[in-house]
Design a protein that fits this description.
Helix content: 55-70%
Largest sheet: none
CATH architecture of the domain at 15-75: Orthogonal Bundle
Distance between the termini: 46 Å
Radius of gyration: 18 Å
CATH superfamily of the domain at 15-75: lambda repressor-like DNA-binding domains
Number of helices: 5
Length: 100
C-alpha cells in the first residue's frame, strides 16, 4: 500500500525579499548605499526588505532608476503580493450588481 502526502505551502516572497535576494546581495549593494543613492532613509529600505513597508509608486521609480529595472517591475511585484495575500473574507458579503 502506497501513501502519498501532499504539502501545500502558501508562502509568497515579499517584494522586499526579492529586492534583497535578487538585487542587493548578488550585486553587493548595502541597504545604506541603496538608501543614499535613491534619497531615502536606510530604515525605509530595511522596512521594505523585512516586509514591514510596501513599495509605493515613488519607491518603484526610485528602485527602477537605481537598479536598471522598470517601475512597473516593482509596482507589479507589490500588486501581485497584495492580491495573493489578501483575505477576501474581510470584505463581508458583497452582492454583485453586474453578472460576470
Amino acid at each position: 500500500m502506497s501513501t502519498s502526502t501532499t504539502t501545500t505551502t502558501d508562502y509568497y516572497s515579499t517584494p522586499g525579499e526579492i529586492l534583497d535576494e535578487e538585487f542587493l546581495q548578488p550585486l553587493g549593494i548595502s541597504r545604506y548605499r541603496l538608501s543614499k543613492s535613491i534619497g531615502v532613509s536606510e530604515t525605509a529600505i530595511g522596512e521594505i526588505v523585512n516586509g514591514r513597508r510596501r513599495i509605493t509608486t515613488a519607491m518603484a521609480w526610485r528602485l527602477s532608476k537605481a537598479l536598471g529595472t522598470s517601475p512597473e517591475f516593482w509596482a507589479n511585484l507589490q500588486t501581485d503580493y497584495d492580491l495573493l495575500t489578501f483575505d477576501s473574507r474581510s470584505l463581508g458579503d458583497i452582492h454583485p450588481l453586474v453578472e460576470a
